[in-house]
Amino acid sequence: MDRGPKPADLQLSADERTNVEELVRRRDVGQALAQRARIVLAYAEPGSTNSGITRALGVSRMSVTTWRARFLAHRLDGLVDLPRSGAPRQVGDAEIERVISLTLESQPANATHWSTRAMAQRAGMSQTMVSRVWRAFGLQPHQDETFKLSTDPAFVDKVRDVVGLYLAPPHRTVVLCVDEKPQIQATTRTAPGAAAAARPARATHPRRSPGRHHRSVRGTGRAGRWRHRSVEFRAFLDQVEASVPADLDMHLVLDNAATHKTRLIHEWLLKRPRWHLHFTPTSASWLNLVEGWFALLARRQL
Question: Looking at the domain assignment, is residue 145 inside a domain?
Fold first, then answer.
């Protein structure tokens, strides 16, 4: 039996009741917040008591009285945890800025790249703190990425042409991205792999080939050919020509390989005026969307 005076009924407005009930029903709400909402709903029932709510919800009496009082004082905002101060910062903004500047503008004396240990020793702070700063600002000085600048004099015009084709293709047009994927090898490992458990999945380094394999493939749903000549490229165009209705224009995005510019291909295109070729700039294969498909193919299947 409750001791002391019976707590006054907790009155909920229509909007408050709707919001509290939604907190109970929603799956993306934490269990702690949902439990506080149930306590408030239970208090809103006529004749509710602290002991009855404690037994019905399986929570402590302290929780029941605390969240009732918080709701009475702050309404819905009272159900949310207050911000906690936590321990005071031991590393100031000036020290963090110094770590960033050292990472971006300097190089260790006995290495080519900073490590967290080397930077911690240089900056006079812990390795953990250096790791936190690097993660927070997206710094990865231990990694290298390569790039190549295109020297194509028509680079800007070609980019605008290809990107414009992607964003706003002409009416009744088929746009195809064409390229060869070299060195696709049907190989297997020399021993069964070890499944991932507490460490990454492992596989033997050497491989073996179970049989002959094709050197290249085009994104047409069939295996590629052994050679990369204009004859094979024309056969590919013939296949596409036969597959696409004659009332549609054809726009091809492709690279500057010599195979695509021979007399054989030129004469084939002159007989088919609905075909239009869009060449990517030199050293800019990333502009060809089929490269992304090749990357997925290699990463997920090969």
Answer: no
Q: Which of 103, 136, 169 is the last residue of a domain?
A: 136
Strand, coil or helix: 258: helix
The domain of 59 spans 14-79
Q: What is the pLDDT along the chain (302 residues), one digit of tens a residue?
A: 455 455 556 777 788 778 777 877 777 777 777 787 888 877 777 777 777 778 878 888 888 788 778 777 777 777 776 666 667 778 888 899 999 999 989 888 888 889 999 999 999 999 999 999 999 988 888 887 777 888 889 999 999 999 999 999 999 999 999 887 766 655 666 666 666 555 666 666 666 655 443 334 344 444 455 567 888 889 999 999 999 999 999 999 998 888 888 999 999 999 999 999 999 998 888 888 888 888 888 788 76
Whether residue 57 is found in the same domain as residue 97: no
Cβ distance 254 to 225 under 8 Å? no
Contacts with 108 (C-beta within 8 Å, 6 or more apart), sequence order = 114, 115, 118, 122
Indicate whether 232 and 170 sit together in one domain. Answer: yes
pTM above 0.85, yes or no: no
Separation of alpha carbons 243 and 222, rounded Å:
13
Does 181 reside within a domain? yes
Domain count, the chain: 3
Does 61 lie in the same domain as 31? yes
Q: Which amino acid is at 232?
A: E
